[in-house]
Amino acid sequence: PETDSVLIITSSLKDVMCLYEMGYSAIAPQSESTFISSEIIEKLKSKFDNIYLLFDTDYDKKENYGKLLGEKTASEHNIKQIEIPISYKCTDIAELIQNYNFRFAKGMIENEIQ
User: Fold this and answer.
1) Mean pLDDT of the chain, nearest integer
2) Which end of the chain has fewer CB atoms within 10 angstroms, the N or the C?
3) CB-based burial label for 87 (10 Å; 0-12, 13-18, 19+)
């Protein structure tokens, strides 16, 4: 949409589709190794009231690169970060839906953006 109250930036198209089904505007870069430019982030800020990052949770690795990248990006662009709790043992929102259910995942997102 041209404008909305919430935009979620995530890491993959499958997560964008899941968030869309939940009723959220969402985008993802073309690949997980690239990110949206500062210029585009600034344009998005003028169109959306709240922007959140939802990157993959590397719960099974020593270093949680999704969390670290999210923290760095959120800090650089002054936007908020959403995290799937490591205790859920799910890498992304699509896996959270698969392992739990749609309502559970949507509730988690709603709690994070309040």
Assistant:
1) 89
2) C
3) exposed
